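JOB MANIFEST
job_type = single_chain_structure
chain_count = 1
residues = 254
[input]
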Amino acid sequence: RFPLPGTKARSWYLGDGGALTDAKPSQAGVDAFRYDPSALPSTNFTGNTGAGGLWKATPTYRWLNNPAGTALSYVSAPLSADTTVVGAGAVQTWIKADKPSVDLQVTVSEVRPDGLETFVQGGWMRASGRKLDAAKSTELAPYPSLRKKDIKPLPKGKYSLVTVPLYYQGHAYRAGSRLRIVISAPGGAQPIWEFDAQPSGTANVSLARSPSMPSRVLLPAIAGAKVPTPLPPCPGLRGEPCRPYVALANTPGR
């Protein structure tokens, strides 16, 4: 059952210059991106989805980087100690858009000291369905209401808290690696899921990170977990594509 014994919510805050930091923002900042579901292929795998293809030990994924301006990227400093994450998680974002709703995708990855990047997990949320079920939700496992009566457009010109639930994950980040999240329109990060992203066109999205609107990542870190092995081969983890790490500069917003 989750959470595992020893689980603590570990927070990283979205900060200046695309940084993930331990401290809450001390001043206001805004980053912006162009929401565009067509910026990447809908999936990161094509071909045989059965034995010998997608289900072999190391499938040939085509996990591409987001084009400049179509996503936001935040990366932590190198971790000082091994950090094991088991369970769900969440990314709390303060956003506004020039459309009544946008679908957000958050991709979590490990940036390794050897210059490679390993996919860990993803999460998705439709902004108009941002209402959470208060009775079921916890800090590390937010549950959307999914009720028709709770669907609400984003207020025009104002920021709203949109919490993106992360799917369950089990991953050991080695000391020296960095944690990364990328926020974008859905697509390009799953082998066979094709999202009916809404809106289907483009939109302008701004993300606030300030003392009063602290956007952050929450992950279920397991205290005292031992990691007895070094970094695995890349690719080498089942279902976790690997690619050379390419930095993505965020576009300032207002």
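[summary]
The first strand starts at residue 7 and ends at 14.
Residues 19 and 230 are 26 Å apart (CA to CA).
exit_status = 0
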